[in-house]
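Write out this protein's structure.
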Amino acid sequence: MCDTFAALPDHTAGGCVVLGKNSDREPNEAQVVERIPAREQTEKTVKCTYIAIPQVARTNEVILCRPFWMWGAEMGVNEHGVAIGNEAVFTKIPAGRTNTGLTGMDLLRLSLERSNTAQNALQCISQLLEQYGQDGCGGYKNKRFFYHNSFLIADTREVWVLETAARHWVAQQITHGFRSISNGLTIEEQFDLHSNGLQDYARRQQLTGQGETLNFRKAFSDRFYTYMSSCGIRQPQSATQGGNHPGSFLPQDAMQILSSHYTTPFNPARATTQSICMHATGLTNPSQTVGSMVAVLRSGKPHTVWVTGTSMPCLSVYKPLFFAGNPLSGAWSILPGATPNHSLWWQAEMLHRNAIHHYKEFLKQYDAPRLRLQNALIGNENLLLSGKFDTRNAETLSEQAAQQHLQLIARFLPEALKRGKHQPFHQIWHRLYWKIQNQAAKINRPGGAG
């Protein structure tokens, strides 16, 4: 499950575009943050998650957040200021389950590497979708998790919402205000572009009646899985929260939306799929937010890509990345994998997996220092951009941010390890669930790295 939104120039305080996304996936599915420089390509093909397709002559510099095992990315930004987040959507067209197509994440990365505007990215995704389809498993351990995709595609001027069902699609242009998407189709009768033969296909499959105007959501949406995703609860939350800041929306407002929970006070042991900041609890709620991104896209000025590089934005810190023409270094270069290591993702995960068992008490000590660090980083980014932009200073800020976050984790991990003796019945089941997850990730001691 995921949530993505964007605020356009008329809605933001600085006349920029702000795109935010939470990536909700399996709890042990660590997410890699990487910066890949622009390249003149010599290989004739590019191997995506399951299939290889022809490569292009040159690919853009990109900053990506992707599942560690997957070629494609859940969210990202390129050097031209194109940002994309994707969503799993569930439709009436059954998946082939053959792993002979591209995943939605592949489509996202390919379009970032090949496009210089939001509309170019839309064209790239739709063309690749029609040619190769989207038959690729999106699950890590769950190899039966196949789905279709929607995309929110932004540049410095406009936003496009692209929604798909197999190789069919519709797109809607957004030129002002605030727009959000979640795990359900949202485009009905009003769309600006669509795939060839879409309406004929819908009529042949009796998804819409003869002579009726096509309503894409009603015709193609699978009711059961869409309902179970709780997108009908989460998407209005992001739309309402984002819509409350017309003309004054800031990146920190995006960070707040991505950190929000449906119930107050929040208890991770009782979490459901109704919260934007998602905490896994078991069979009916198997996903957690494993990574978050807020992209600030500016015309004629440097773009900032704020990433947690960790799970749980409610316990994390957004750190700024910039385009510098080289791969990330220092703490950012230690990439997470299937089992714990010294990467930022897994170090933060040790804090998270202990803190959630006494979340309310832990936040009383941790939340204020966390927010002080976040506000300091926002202030440092504003200072960096107020003068002549220097990539060396930008790289220093990014590395210091990662180090300061690691220091915060190390400081509060002992507090996270402290647990009360009283355990309500529902919390015992919560602990059992996380014990199973820890065993699967080969975490063999509290706070340890394997």
